[in-house]
Specification:
about 80 residues, mainly beta, globular
């Protein structure tokens, strides 16, 4: 099992995907008064993309930092087109 770390894509206890951006767990205060140490980052789901994400015990899916170089650089003529989907 992979250990949590910055750059890893993981699932929280609700099964929602996120990209871990913290170097270590940080103290998080949740709605309802619950609090604890958690890895934090950003949501990757379509509905919540970019919103804050956290998990006390993330299930690591893969390390995005390790696989990104394997994709290689974007072509020089690459143009990003935003989608409404």
């Amino acid at each position: 099992m992979m250990e949590p770390k910055r750059g890893a894509v993981a699932l929280c206890s609700r099964g929602e995907p996120g990209l871990i951006t913290s170097n270590n767990p940080v103290w998080v205060e949740y709605p309802g008064g619950d609090a604890g140490w958690a890895w934090v980052g950003v949501h990757l789901s379509k509905e919540k993309a970019g919103d804050p994400w956290s998990s006390r015990n993330p299930k690591i899916l893969f390390d995005a930092i390790e696989i990104a170089p394997a994709a290689g650089p974007l072509p020089e003529n690459y143009e990003y087109v935003a989608s409404d989907d």
